[in-house]
């Protein structure tokens, strides 16, 4: 991640540069926007380095270095205020000045107005090998014409083969314009590098064409949707080679070594010794976002002091050390950037001293990253949710968090001890980087495999999103959870899950498995319990709250107590969106005593049955199986990717309710 990348600084990406030149001449010019996406999709699915499908071709959002030229067209850059998350991002990226910025976007007053046309996510066309849909010509981008003449019809933007005469053998036909589509094969490696497939070298077995310096290639494909079924043909020397030769372990030996390319950065890593793997443009494992998120809670006094010190350090820079003993001068210099009107001199002096403290060394940063536990982000949230609100709809103005206490209904399960209605909340999500081929939490040699978003080793900012929504918080009885957990640890079912996790860990964490105890990465039984409870509640709530199941998300507070961190057992079911759609009130209404009783009762009853029973109810991993779930499937308790924070892992209905042949359920037997 800290290796210096090789790139050509003269090839900077600036989509609006030519538009501004034309504007100076008085010529109208299309601003060249080719598509759009919601902030949630751009951070979780189509972020920098991912491949985004447009109606006629595919693009790749560029690295954040190229976004700076977009922001430079504005007087100021907006900052998302979430100090707790920002500090974690700084630690993970080893950059002390990282700020959180939103996507460069501005809403339009009317559908045909021009606000925000100077903002957008810069992107590159990728892959840049295209195939003509009329004659199967396979060629790089410069061989095709680009058409995008309508400023409000981005769906019409496309590449065309200007003089397509049809496929060979179809008879003479007058040349006409034909749409070209991306050639769908790519090369990737486990360190996140991605490259075009070398079609020319492939069809000629690594040699030059014997008939032409620039051979004419075709991609012949008559069986779409069946993997690497195409045939690459050279019209110049009549060579042919099928793509299915590149599949599997045998095919991998025929592929070239990785060149270390990062197309989103237009750069190359100095060296890469990995073998490449054949990938398809639309493969689901081509891009996995590495993100962290928090629900913004009211800041403690300590957090406020740390935040003030950080703002002073960034606002004054070297001047802070020069005038550290002159508090009046510091107030004058920072007047426009930091509000110090209500900060007493004693607090200001402490903040200055804290801001001037030396930054941690690289060794200290590495040790902190290795020992950091993601649960640390959840602990402040859990501690605040344990406090009873001061009144109905108690609102913290700084964070926007609004809570209300709900009385427990007489028929509510006694294992649920507290209920809170989260009337309003703000969730901030930050993108740290991404991985390819395997998800972030399934690779053990991070941060080496975390692909950076910038060419610089110490980025100044990263992209983040703000979501607003509502939710329902449930807390379980800690004494009952602890007693139940002891019983689970002694069960054969838990032993089977632990063995399956060890097999899964050793297969996926092959490079680091020898240095890490897999049992330390296995979630405790209470996590399985609360995770399964969250999923069945998601399904039940979606039937009555007015939101779809894919719009609801889980926030799990489930960890055993350690020194300095008390145990937790609770869940927040929430819905969030980048606009007001996440605060319509339908979910909060389910926290009312009578409604919540019915929701919990219905969810637990449905958990006792599955259309795949008895197969689902008796599913337990045995050697050599390594799946990380038990009595759970898409028919009963699995959720969509947008709802589950663990990819439908660590689920088992047997830990929630008693199923035939099992008495491990926390809630015991459930009657209709």
Please give a quick description of this structure.
InterPro entries: DrmB, MZB. The chain has 672 residues and is α+β, with helices and mostly antiparallel strands.
Describe the structure.
- Residues 533-636 form the MrfA-like Zn-binding domain.
- With 672 residues, the chain is of the alpha+beta class.
- 25% of the residues lie in helices and 20% in strands.
- Strand 20 (394-395) and strand 21 form a beta hairpin.
- The longest helix has 18 residues, at 525-542.
- The protein starts with 5 loop residues before the first strand and ends in a 65-residue tail after the last helix.
- The relative contact order is 0.10.
The shape, in one word, is globular
Structural class: alpha+beta
Q: Tell me the fraction of residues in β-strands, as a range.
A: 15-25%
Radius of gyration: 28 Å
Total helical elements: 17
Number of domains: 3
Largest sheet: 8 strands, mixed
What percent of the residues sit in helical stretches (DSSP H or I)?
A: 25-40%
Mean pLDDT: 88
Spans of at least 5 consecutive residues with low confidence? none
Intertermini distance: 55 Å
User: How many β-strands, per DSSP?
Assistant: 25
Organism: Kocuria dechangensis
Pfam family, one: MZB
Protein name: MrfA-like Zn-binding domain-containing protein
């Amino acid at each position: 991640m800290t290796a210096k990348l090789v790139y050509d600084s003269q090839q900077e990406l600036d989509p609006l540069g030519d538009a501004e030149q034309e504007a100076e001449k008085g010529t109208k010019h299309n601003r060249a926007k080719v598509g759009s996406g919601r902030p949630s999709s751009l951070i979780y699915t189509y972020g920098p380095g991912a491949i985004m499908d447009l109606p006629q071709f595919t693009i790749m959002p560029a690295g954040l270095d190229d976004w700076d030229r977009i922001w430079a067209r504005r007087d100021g850059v907006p900052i998302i205020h979430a100090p707790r998350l920002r500090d974690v991002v700084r630690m993970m990226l080893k950059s002390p000045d990282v700020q959180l910025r939103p996507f460069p976007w501005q809403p339009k007053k009317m559908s045909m107005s021009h606000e925000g046309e100077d903002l957008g996510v810069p992107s590159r066309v990728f892959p840049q090998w295209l195939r003509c849909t009329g004659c199967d010509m396979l060629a790089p981008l410069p061989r095709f014409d680009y058409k995008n003449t309508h400023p409000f019809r981005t769906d019409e933007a496309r590449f065309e083969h200007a003089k397509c005469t049809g496929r060979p053998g179809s008879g003479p036909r007058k040349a006409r314009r034909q749409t070209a589509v991306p050639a769908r094969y790519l090369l990737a490696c486990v360190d996140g590098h991605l490259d075009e497939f070398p079609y020319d070298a492939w069809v000629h077995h690594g040699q030059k064409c014997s008939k032409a310096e620039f051979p004419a290639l075709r991609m012949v494909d008559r069986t779409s949707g069946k993997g690497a079924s195409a045939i690459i043909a050279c019209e110049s020397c009549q060579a042919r080679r099928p793509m299915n030769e590149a599949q599997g372990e045998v095919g991998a030996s025929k592929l070239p070594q990785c060149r270390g390319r990062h197309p989103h950065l237009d750069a190359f890593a100095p060296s890469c010794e990995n073998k490449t793997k054949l990938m398809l443009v639309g493969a689901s494992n081509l891009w996995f976002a590495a993100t962290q998120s928090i629900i913004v809670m009211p800041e403690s006094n300590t957090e406020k002091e740390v935040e003030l010190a950080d703002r002073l350090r960034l606002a004054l820079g070297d001047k802070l050390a020069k005038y550290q003993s002159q508090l009046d001068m510091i107030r004058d210099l920072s007047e426009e950037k930091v509000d110090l009107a209500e900060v007493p001199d004693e607090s200001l002096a402490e903040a200055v001293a804290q801001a001037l403290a030396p930054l941690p060394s690289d060794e200290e940063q590495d040790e902190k990253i290795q020992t950091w536990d993601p649960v640390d982000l959840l602990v402040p949230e859990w501690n605040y949710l344990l406090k009873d609100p001061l009144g109905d709809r108690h609102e913290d103005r700084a964070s926007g968090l609004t809570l209300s206490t709900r009385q427990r209904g007489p028929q509510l399960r006694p294992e649920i001890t507290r209920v809170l209605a989260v009337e309003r909340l703000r969730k901030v999500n930050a993108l740290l980087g991404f991985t390819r081929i395997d998800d972030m939490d399934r690779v053990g040699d991070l941060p080496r495999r975390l692909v950076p978003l910038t060419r610089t080793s110490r980025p100044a900012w990263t992209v983040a999103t703000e979501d607003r929504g509502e939710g329902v918080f449930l807390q379980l009885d800690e004494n009952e959870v602890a007693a139940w957990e002891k019983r689970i640890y002694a069960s054969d079912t838990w032993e089977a899950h632990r063995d399956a996790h060890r097999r899964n860990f050793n297969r996926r964490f092959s490079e680091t498995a020898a240095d890490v105890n897999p049992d330390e990465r296995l979630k405790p039984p209470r996590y399985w319990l609360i995770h399964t409870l969250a999923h069945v509640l998601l399904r039940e709530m979606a039937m009555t709250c007015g939101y779809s199941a894919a719009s609801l998300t889980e926030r799990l507070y489930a960890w055993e107590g350690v020194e300095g961190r008390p145990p937790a057992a609770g869940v927040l079911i929430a819905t969030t969106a980048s606009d007001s759609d996440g605060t319509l009130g339908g979910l909060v209404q389910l926290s009312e005593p009578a409604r919540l009783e019915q929701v919990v009762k219905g969810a637990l009853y449905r958990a006792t049955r599955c259309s795949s029973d008895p197969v689902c109810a008796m599913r337990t991993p045995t050697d050599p199986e390594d799946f990380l779930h038990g009595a759970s499937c898409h028919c009963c308790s699995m959720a969509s990717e947008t709802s589950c924070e663990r990819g439908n892992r660590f689920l088992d209905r047997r830990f929630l309710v008693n199923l035939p042949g099992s008495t491990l359920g926390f809630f015991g037997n459930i009657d209709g």
